[in-house]
Amino acid sequence: MVLTLKLKKKLDLYLEADSITPDNCAGKSVDEIKKLVVFLGNRKMGLGEFFDVKGKSGDKAEDTKIVIEGNCSYVQRIGEKMSAGEIVITGDCGMHVGNTMTGGKILVEGNADDWVGAMMDGGEITVNGDAGNHCAGAYRGNWVGMNAGKIVVKGKIGVESGSYMRATRSRKKYPILECGSADLYLGVHNHGGTIICHGDCEGRAGADMARGQIFIDGNLKDVLPSFKKIDDISDVKSPAGIIKGSYTQYQGDFCVSKKPGARLYVKKK
Q1: Domain count, the chain
Q2: What pLDDT, on the 0 to 100 scale, is given for residue 170?
Q3: pLDDT tens-digit readout, 68-86
């Protein structure tokens, strides 16, 4: 079942819309969905005051697809905590899209703001444009960022993306972040995540990294002095599958441990 939400007009203030999930919409009528709570500043309002709602939701979250139309760059927390179903955002969206989600799929056809998939624990997010800072990261004061699932950003991701990513071997969950290019501190504090950057990285990748893998296919402006070159290697095995190509392999971060388990791979030119 497909439910369509069309933004009535461009917003000048941020709208907190964590109620927009298949979980919250499943089994509800259009009129009930219009009454879902959103916040404009400190004002508690109904979703229907900002969106035209059409279509029909499924009986369960996994049977519900939500299509969101309009410039949603000021709409925050879409897909927060969702566990199943699908959301398609046809333009841009605001911060915190898909944060702490555990399942389902989100597609952003435009750009996304900061904190895409922050601390997510399952599911998939695809952003066809760029994403802001702290993509797949951990909120301030937390030690675990993206813990499972996959995020693909086809454009550039901002600073400190992939921070505190953490694999959970007991649950056989290995988070994957893939991007077109990246800003500074990619994979900072990484503890088991797999990060694949198909383009350039501004530098300082893997700072304070203890476990996990980072692949840089483009130019890396600098390799931190706390990383040690091991050898050259081809076709590297990872939780994301075999990463094809020839890479220079570095071990680090030696500021974290005398025998760090993390690896940084920079593609050979």
Answers
A1: 1
A2: 72
A3: 999 999 999 999 999 999 9
